[in-house]
Amino acid sequence: MQVFFKTTIKGVIYMSDSAANKDYLKLHKEIAKQVNSLIDQVEFANLALIDGYLQEQVKQKKPIASVIDVPIDAKQFFGFVQQIAEISVGNQPHLQETMDAITTALKTTDETEKFIEATKCLNSYYFADFAERNSLNGAIVQFLAEMAYRPYIKALAKLLDEKVKFEGYNHNMCPVCGEKARLARGAEDGKREACCTRCDTVWEIQRLQCPHCKNEKHEDLKYIVAGDDENRKLYVCESCKGYIKIVNLKDQLGTPSFFIIDLETIHLDMVASQEGYGEEAESNSKVM
Ligand SMILES: [Zn+2]
Ligand SMILES: [Zn+2]
Question: Which of 71, 151, 228, 233 is the most buried (most CB within 10 A)?
Answer without folding.
Answer: 151
